[in-house]
Amino acid sequence: MDFDIKGKIEELVKKISGDKSLLEKFTKDPIGAVKGLLGGVDLPSEQLESLVAGVKAKLNIDQAGDLLGKIGGLFGKK
Prior knowledge:
With 78 residues, the chain is mainly α. It is 78% helix and 0% strand.
């Protein structure tokens, strides 16, 4: 089975970041949330953990960028 992990991470990040309840679920149970989003795709634990780690990293980067934008706004920069 050919699985594009980078593409899947991007897809999952879009879904999770666009849905507040899904983001809460991912925060509480990342493995369960990702398994649910994969919809029947059965991955080995190692790949599933890599996928979760990639999504977490991407979400943190996106959230950090949003936070930096807000902080810049405090100092009159945009």
